[in-house]
From TrEMBL:
<feature type="transmembrane region" description="Helical">
    <location>
        <begin position="574"/>
        <end position="593"/>
    </location>
</feature>
<dbReference type="InterPro" id="IPR036412">
    <property type="entry name" value="HAD-like_sf"/>
</dbReference>
<dbReference type="InterPro" id="IPR018303">
    <property type="entry name" value="ATPase_P-typ_P_site"/>
</dbReference>
<dbReference type="InterPro" id="IPR023214">
    <property type="entry name" value="HAD_sf"/>
</dbReference>
<keyword id="KW-1133">Transmembrane helix</keyword>
<keyword id="KW-1278">Translocase</keyword>
<dbReference type="InterPro" id="IPR059000">
    <property type="entry name" value="ATPase_P-type_domA"/>
</dbReference>
<dbReference type="GO" id="GO:0005524">
    <property type="term" value="F:ATP binding"/>
</dbReference>
<dbReference type="GO" id="GO:0016463">
    <property type="term" value="F:P-type zinc transporter activity"/>
</dbReference>
<dbReference type="InterPro" id="IPR008250">
    <property type="entry name" value="ATPase_P-typ_transduc_dom_A_sf"/>
</dbReference>
<feature type="transmembrane region" description="Helical">
    <location>
        <begin position="14"/>
        <end position="34"/>
    </location>
</feature>
<dbReference type="InterPro" id="IPR051014">
    <property type="entry name" value="Cation_Transport_ATPase_IB"/>
</dbReference>
<feature type="transmembrane region" description="Helical">
    <location>
        <begin position="41"/>
        <end position="62"/>
    </location>
</feature>
<dbReference type="InterPro" id="IPR023298">
    <property type="entry name" value="ATPase_P-typ_TM_dom_sf"/>
</dbReference>
<keyword id="KW-0472">Membrane</keyword>
<dbReference type="InterPro" id="IPR001757">
    <property type="entry name" value="P_typ_ATPase"/>
</dbReference>
<keyword id="KW-0067">ATP-binding</keyword>
């Protein structure tokens, strides 16, 4: 049956291309005949190009009727037949070309989707390296059985699920979990197919066959989600159910009232459905073209129309809301060591590595103005770290196992490990001549354009925004609070993301935005899947309906604005075309318009409707807003620099509380409270009292400021907690639990205010840019 179905589908595609070729050839031959003064030959050519399309249309309509569906195809049949009967074969030929050409465009979209899906499947490994009698043999992945022992070489994709058999394996699971930092797997730990071996060669014991492994499951989810999607019903079909019977009724009434068949024919000529056939496709294709100019690839007008109806947007976190890389959070120096000196040594050594974490460390050193040194005799252990010589001293930087070995970490290093766990951060240890001197904490960071993207989506009418991520809840909740998202779903695997999409879909049209293979099933399941595809081909862009070619999240809001405008123009064109057609039909029914004038009027309507639909090619204006001067724009950042220095002090206090004795902790917590009350609280209250009222008069939509005000309330709530805790300190027994509570409150304030300040700067820049435009 599948082979027969594929053969039938291929035959239908060939037939559609043939009908388009006939329509084009007939129009060309007819035009040439007119040019040489043979209108009789032209009429024959136009008719010959229309009849095959009519025949194919009859078969299609019968099939649709049997399936319980009727749409604009029936009007096309009546109009083409009436045009030939009335001696207007040119009109029939034009409609024939438009109808057959639309079918071919649909075939192209389907072929593109099939190609993209094949690209996803092609990423899966075809062979595995299996141990057999102390020798390695290459076998097809399908022949691998549970219990087999495989070797996975450096840089290879893990072919099946298994358990690590060597001492250690370093794998990049970003394709599955979305997390960009490689993870270390020790003996006995599970490892998933689709992961990339980012370290040295390791062995694994197979726990699932290729067909039952994680990556195969993702491919199945994508395939199932795509095949489960209902085909796009053209916007015009919704109105054809009204337009077709009313047109026939008016024609019949005209005949019975006058007894003049010419009036009925004139009505049918005036009822030519070109506004219905052309208006929506032209508007949506124009919208697709306009989106492409902004680096937004929309896979067809149907997807653009679905984008315009969206109510809910789900975001992946890593690589979507965040940059998907690492940034330096803090330098944890051993007692007696200088933090800048530790960073200098580590950054100098990491210059010899091309790892993404190494790049972040080197960049952090340069940002702090450190003069990096040239490392010598560098030896890199893939996925674990580096060793080398700097100024004659042996320096090591990397994982705990590489730097510490089996030694127990000193107390300060144990606290750094715990703090890395709190912040969902990667920790890099640094040793000099075998002595541990410090550690670096690195984690992902928010995209610079994420606050602007969220604001654009609110302005575009998106009512609900949800983050769904495989990351831990603590890190996800912090970002969700800063961005004022409506919900945060953490610790979600790919199948959980699909469930989240389907849950939202049951309520409203839903968009999913992501960038990794782990997002592909959810992208395929959503009404519209949007992938950030600037970093190269991936399963996400293959499964998505919209691909943002530029690495900018704010283009998601722009895509929705373009889609909404194209849909609005399509609706305007269809409604206006129908209304004018009804007026023309009424005039024909009363004998005011004869068939030839009716045809001319209908052509004028067609041209007007199509020209209106082409407005979707023009950029969408964002309306007018108030203006501010450049000086005012700078003034809006009235004390952000001073505030950031205060936040740096809070971060230093959080670090110092790790080692503080109770008496010293009381002093540090009091200092943190003073910074919060004198700088943070004062800043937030000044924003609410003077800055935000000014911005409200300048912005088109106040939702962004409402979200910022809610962030203010959260910051003030945390400040009150810290203030109450500080007041109670003299009467409390200060133990490590109380210190930890204070530490977490201070850290939450510092993190939230830092992200909130970045959002404010983004709004100020947007207002200043809009005023300068």
């Amino acid at each position: 049956m599948p082979a027969q179905s594929g053969t039938l589908l291929m035959f239908e595609r060939i037939l559609r291309w043939t009908l388009v070729a006939i329509a084009i050839a007939g129009l060309a031959a007819g035009g040439l005949a007119h040019a040489i003064g043979r209108p009789d030959f032209a009429a024959v050519a136009f008719t010959a190009s229309t009849v095959p399309v009519i025949a194919g249309l009859v078969v299609s309509i019968v099939r649709d009727v049997l399936a319980g569906r009727i749409g604009v195809d029936a009007i096309a049949l009546v109009s083409m037949s009436a045009a030939i009967i009335l001696g207007e074969p040119l009109a029939g030929a034009v409609v024939a070309l438009m109808y057959s050409g639309g079918n071919v465009l649909e075939d192209i979209a389907v072929a593109r989707a099939e190609h993209d899906l094949r690209a996803l499947v092609d990423r899966a490994p075809r062979q595995a390296h299996r141990w057999r009698d102390d020798q390695i043999e290459d076998v097809p992945v399908a022949d691998v059985n549970v219990g087999d022992r495989l070797m996975v070489r450096a840089g290879e994709i893990v072919p099946v699920d298994g358990v690590v058999q060597t001492t250690m394996a370093v794998v990049d699971e970003s394709a599955l979990t979305g997390e960009p930092i490689p993870v270390t797997k020790t003996r006995g730990m599970a490892i998933l197919s689709g992961s990339l071996n980012a370290g040295e060669t390791f062995e694994l014991s197979v726990t699932a066959t290729a067909g039952e492994s994680t990556y195969a499951g993702i491919v199945k989810l994508v395939t199932g989600a795509q095949t489960a999607k209902a085909p796009f019903v053209r916007l015009a079909d919704r109105y054809a159910l009204i337009f077709l019977p009313v047109s026939l009724a008016i024609a019949a009434a005209a005949y019975f009232a006058s007894g003049d068949v010419i009036r009925s024919l004139a009505v049918m000529v005036a009822a030519t459905p070109c506004p219905l056939i052309l208006a929506a496709p032209v508007a949506f294709i124009a919208g697709v073209a306009q989106a492409a100019r902004s680096g937004i690839l929309v896979k067809g007008g149907g997807k653009l129309e679905a984008l315009a109806r969206a109510h809910t947007v789900l975001f992946d976190k890593t690589g979507t809301l965040t940059v998907g890389g690492a940034r330096l959070l803090s330098v944890e120096a051993a007692p007696g060591e200088d933090a800048d000196a530790v960073l200098l040594l580590c950054a100098s050594l990491e210059q010899a590595s091309h790892h993404v974490v190494a790049h972040a460390i080197v960049q952090a050193g340069r940002d702090r103005g450190l003069k990096l040194k040239v490392p010598e005799a560098v030896r890199e252990t893939m996925g674990s770290g580096l060793e080398g010589v700097i100024d004659g001293r042996r320096i090591s930087a990397g994982s705990r196992d590489l730097v510490l070995g089996n030694r127990t970490p000193p107390p300060w290093a144990a606290r750094a490990i715990r703090r890395a766990s709190w912040r969902s951060a990667l920790i890099v240890f640094i040793a000099m001549e075998g002595r541990l001197i410090g550690a670096l904490l690195l984690a992902d960071e928010l995209r610079a354009d994420t606050p602007r993207a969220i604001r654009w989506l609110r302005e575009a009418g998106i009512a609900r925004m949800v983050m769904v991520t495989g990351d831990r809840a603590a890190a996800a909740q912090a970002i969700g609070a800063a961005l004022d998202l409506d919900a945060v779903l953490a610790d979600r695997v790919p199948s959980d993301k699909v469930d989240a999409v389907k849950s939202e879909q049951r309520l409203h049209p839903t968009i999913m935005v992501g960038d990794g293979i782990n997002d592909a099933p959810a992208l395929a399941s959503a009404d519209v899947g949007i992938a950030l595809g600037a970093r190269g081909a991936s399963a996400s862009s293959e499964a998505a309906d919209v691909v943002i070619l530029a690495d900018r999240l704010d283009r998601v809001g722009e895509a929705i604005v373009i889609a909404q405008r194209a849909r609005r123009i399509a609706l305007e064109s269809i409604i206006a075309g129908m209304a004018l057609s009804f007026i023309a039909m009424g005039a024909a029914a009363f004998g005011v318009l004869q068939p030839v004038p009716a045809a001319l009027v209908q052509e004028a309507i067609d041209v007007a409707v199509i020209l209106n639909a082409l407005r979707a090619l023009l950029p969408a204006g964002r309306g007018k807003a108030g203006r501010i001067t450049a000086e005012d724009g700078s003034g809006l950042r009235h004390d952000h620099q001073a505030l950031l220095r205060g936040l740096d002090r809070l971060r230093a206090i959080v670090d110092a509380l790790d080692e503080a004795e109770p008496e010293q902790a009381i002093i540090l917590i009091g200092q943190a409270n003073a910074v919060v009350q004198d700088q943070v609280v004062a800043h937030e209250r000044d924003d609410e009292g003077s800055v935000y009222p000014r911005l409200a008069r300048l912005l088109q939509d106040s939702h962004g400021l409402s979200a910022m005000s809610r962030a203010h309330r959260e910051i003030l709530h945390l400040a009150r907690l810290l203030g109450r805790l500080t007041e109670d300190l003299p009467s409390e027994h200060v133990d490590r639990y109380l210190i930890r509570d204070a530490q977490r409150v201070i850290e939450a304030i510092e993190t939230l205010v830092r992200m909130h300040t970045a959002q404010e700067d983004d709004i100020y820049e947007a207002v200043a840019a809009r005023s300068a435009a």
